[in-house]
Design brief:
Blueprint: H1 9-17, E1 24-29, E2 37-43, E3 47-52, H2 62-74, E4 91-94, E5 97-103, H3 115-131, H4 145-155, H5 159-162, H6 166-180, E6 187-190, E7 199-202, E8 205-209, E9 216-219, H7 220-231, H8 241-252, H9 259-285, H10 298-310
Antiparallel strand pairs: 1-2, 2-3, 3-5, 4-5, 6-9, 7-8
Helix pairs in contact: 3-7, 3-8, 4-6, 4-9, 6-9, 7-8, 7-9, 9-10
The protein binds adenosine-5'-triphosphate (ATP) and L-homoserine.
Adenosine-5'-triphosphate is lined by residues 2, 30, 32-36, 38, 49, 80, 102, 104-105, 197-198, 210-211, 213.
Length: 321
C-alpha cells in the first residue's frame, strides 16, 4: 500500500477547491509505491495525482523537486506538472502533511521490460540529463557513498539474519568504495530512482517519467548504472547483455559517454547495487508493526552486486567500444 495518511472528505474538498481544477467527482487511494501517500483525483476537469509527503521526504527539499518537475516539463520532458493554488503555491498542507497536486500522466509501467523498453529508457534518461542542464538548483545526494555506512550500521548484526555473512560483505564493499569512488565525472541533475515502476509506456514508446523524490545533483553515469541494475537483469539475477546494449545505445543516441565515465561504469554499477541493497536491508529489518507495506527484497541486490564484482570492463554491460 501507499496510503499512510487518511484524509477527511471535508478537508480534501477544501484543499482541492484552492487549486481551481474543477469539482471533485471521485478520489481513490493508490496502492503502488512505498514512500508517500498517493491519491488519484477525478475532477470535472481532468485526472490529477494528490501526494502527501511522508516522513521520508524532507519538506526542505520540496522546492527542488517541484521546481525540477516544472523545469523539465518546460524543456519538453513528459513528467508530472505541479498545479499551483490560487496563491501561486504548489505545496500546501493537508491532514497535517505537506501535499501537492500534479497532472496525471497516461501510460502504464512494465513489470518485465523488453529490449525496446530498455532502449527507450536509456534515451529518456539522457534526455532528462540534457533537460536538467540549465536547472538552477542543486541537491546533495543523501544516498551517495557517505550515506551508505550509517545505513549499514543501522542494520548492524541483524543483517546476518537476512543472509549469513551479509553484514561483513556490505561493510567490505562500503570500505572499497570509500577509498576509490570516482570523482570529477560529468554531473548534473539525476533522477536516482528510474526503476521500471517510475517509467510509463504507451505501446512500447516511453510516454512519461514520474517520482522525482530522490532526484539530486550527482554523476550522470551513476544514474545510468542505476538503470542498468533495475532494467537489465532477469529474475534469476543473470545480466541480459542484449538489454544492456539497448539501454546504453539508447543513452548514447542522445549523449555520448566520456572515456572516464566508460572506465568508471563497473564501479558505479557495483555502488548503485550496494545503495539499493542497504536501503532495502534497513527497510526489511524495520517494517513498522501492523504496516501494510511489503518491503522490497534486499537479496535481489546482493545477487546483482555479486555479478558486478566480477565485471572489469564496460563491454560486459553491452557497451560496443
Ligand atoms: N503523475 C502521475 N500520473 C499517473 N500516475 C501516477 C502519477 N504519479 C504517481 N502515479 C501512480 O502512483 C503510483 C505511486 O507513485 P510514486 O511511485 O510516485 O509513489 P512513491 O511512494 O513515491 O513511490 P516509490 O515506491 O517509488 O518511492 C505509481 O506507481 C503510479 O501508478
Ligand atoms: N526503487 C527503490 C524503492 C524506492 O523508490 C527500490 O527498488 O529499492
Amino acid at each position: 500500500m501507499a496510503v499512510y495518511t487518511e484524509v477527511p472528505d471535508d478537508e480534501l474538498a477544501a484543499f482541492v477547491a484552492r487549486y481551481g481544477i474543477g469539482d471533485l467527482l471521485a478520489v481513490k487511494g493508490i496502492a503502488e509505491g512505498v514512500s508517500n501517500s498517493n491519491f488519484l483525483l477525478h475532477t470535472t476537469q481532468a485526472f490529477f495525482i494528490l501526494t502527501l509527503y511522508e516522513e521520508r521526504v524532507d519538506a526542505g527539499d520540496l522546492p527542488f523537486f517541484i521546481g525540477l518537475m516544472e523545469h523539465l516539463a518546460r524543456r519538453g520532458l513528459i513528467c508530472p506538472l505541479p498545479v499551483k493554488d490560487r496563491d501561486g503555491q504548489a505545496v500546501g498542507q493537508l491532514a497535517g502533511r505537506p501535499a501537492a497536486i500534479v497532472t496525471f500522466l497516461d501510460g502504464i509501467s512494465v513489470r518485465r521490460p523488453n529490449v525496446t523498453h530498455c532502449a527507450e529508457v536509456g534515451r529518456g534518461l539522457a534526455l532528462l540529463h540534457q533537460a536538467g542542464a540549465d536547472f538552477g538548483m542543486e541537491r546533495v545526494n543523501s544516498l551517495a557513498v557517505p550515506g551508505w555506512r550509517p545505513l549499514a550500521e543501522q542494520a548492524g548484526a541483524a543483517a546476518d539474519t537476512v543472509s549469513p555473512g551479509l553484514g561483513r560483505r556490505v561493510m567490505a564493499e562500503i570500505e572499497a568504495h570509500e577509498r576509490s569512488w570516482p570523482q570529477d565525472l560529468p554531473r548534473g541533475v539525476i533522477h536516482a530512482d528510474l526503476f521500471p515502476n517510475n517509467v510509463f509506456f504507451i505501446k512500447d514508446r516511453l510516454s512519461g517519467l514520474i517520482d522525482f523524490y530522490f532526484a539530486c545533483t550527482d554523476a550522470f553515469a551513476y544514474d545510468l548504472a542505476i538503470c542498468l541494475n533495475s532494467w537489465c537483469f532477469e529474475a534469476d539475477a543473470s545480466f541480459n547483455l542484449t538489454k544492456g546494449q539497448a539501454l546504453l545505445a539508447g543513452y548514447e543516441s542522445v549523449r555520448t559517454l566520456t572515456p572516464a565515465e566508460v572506465g568508471a561504469l563497473p564501479q558505479l554499477c557495483r555502488g548503485s547495487a550496494l545503495r539499493f541493497l542497504v536501503t532495502r536491508l534497513v527497510d526489511w529489518l524495520n517494517v513498522p508493526p501492523g504496516a501494510l507495506v511489503k518491503p522490497l527484497d534486499p537479496l535481489e541486490y546482493d545477487r546483482k552486486l555479486a555479478f558486478h564484482q566480477r565485471v572489469t570492463d564496460a563491454r560486459d554491460y553491452g557497451l560496443k567500444r
